[in-house]
Amino acid sequence: MTLHSITYQARIRIMHWLQQIRVVALRKPFAAAAVIAVAGMLFGASMGASEISRLHAKTLEQRASIEQTRREAQREVNALSARMGELQAQANRLNALGERLTRVGKLGDGEFDFTSPVGLGGPGPVQDMPARGLREGMDAVDAELHESGRQLSVLEALLFDQQLERAALPSRSPVASSYITSGYGSRADPFNGGRAFHKGIDFDARSGDPVMTVADGVVSYSGYRSGYGNVVEVDHGNGYVTRYAHNSRNTVKVGDLVRVGQQIARAGSTGRSTGAHVHFEVWENGRVVNPRKFLGDMGVTRG
């Protein structure tokens, strides 16, 4: 039986007793006074039980409200935690991208250190931050990270294109530890003694020495040409073609993808040649040019 039903039944009994007291009071006044006193005590007890019931219900209601508030606060914390995880992932990606760009751009050590924390500071006082302010701050950081990531991605693409372009530009000697024996341009023909135009540069080499491509590209010719002997030609895809001649044998075929410094032939003296060496030519947009400007300071000297 519930507290409410007990109280209700008590009230019914009290009303019944009051009726009886009224009858007795008419007949026996002193007995009626005693009955009234007892009835008053019982009525007071009834009212106390009713107040207890009301307070108990109020307590249960407050507990339910507190539990609801606690659950809502926890959902808010969980949402902020998930958002913080997303921002941390974005920051980690940007740090990795920044380190990669530092390597690609060949920036000095310590100039951009993405592993060290950023120095922060400022005067007080400090106030509590409302949840709404924290969400707005996270939204602002998210927008900044997104824009920074977009800009860094564009920069990465530009640096990568530049890196590919540099890799496809002749920039090294086709023979290791060698020197130039005959330069580009007019010279005395080694066979007939007359004047002749030399289309490339001759590098000293021993028969069988590795002949290396001077830039990335695709082999566009590998075979024998009159006067040149065994020849390899590499198309670098940017208007440049390089030619390597008088090889004892070629080690690549047409269509092969080659990287800068990769062996493509063995030095020799095939074709119109007085001895083992490497004849090197550079063609730019269909016109032969002086290869010397592409060699730079590669330790190559003239013999």
What would your notes on this structure say?
The structure is a single chain. With 303 residues, the chain is α+β, with helices and mostly antiparallel strands. Helices cover 47% and strands 22% of the residues. It has helices at residues 3-27, 29-104, 131-167, 292-295; strands at residues 179-182, 185-188, 195-198, 201-204, 210-212, 217-225, 229-235, 240-250, 257-258, 263-267, 277-284, 287-289, 301-302. The strands form two sheets. Strands 1, 4, 5, 6, 7, 8, 9, 10, 11, 12 and 13 form an eleven-stranded mixed sheet that branches. It has a two-stranded antiparallel ribbon with strand order 2-3. The longest helix is centred in the N-terminal third of the chain and has 76 residues, at 29-104. 16% of the residues are buried.
Brief summary of the model shown:
This protein is of the alpha+beta class.
Task: Round the Cα radius of gyration to an integer and report it.
Answer: 48 Å
How far apart are the first and last residues' alpha carbons, in Å? 117 Å
Oligomer: single chain
Q: Could you name the ranges where pLDDT drops below 50 across 5 or more consecutive residues?
A: 297-303
Q: How many DSSP helices?
A: 4
Number of strands: 13
Average pLDDT figure: 76
Q: In what range is the share of β-strand residues?
A: 15-25%
Structural class: alpha+beta
What string, H for helix and E for strand, traces the elements in order?
HHHEEEEEEEEEEEEHE
Q: Main sheet, how many strands, which sense, barrel?
A: 11 strands, mixed
Principal-axis shape equals rod-shaped
**Approximately how much helix is present in the residues?**
40-55%
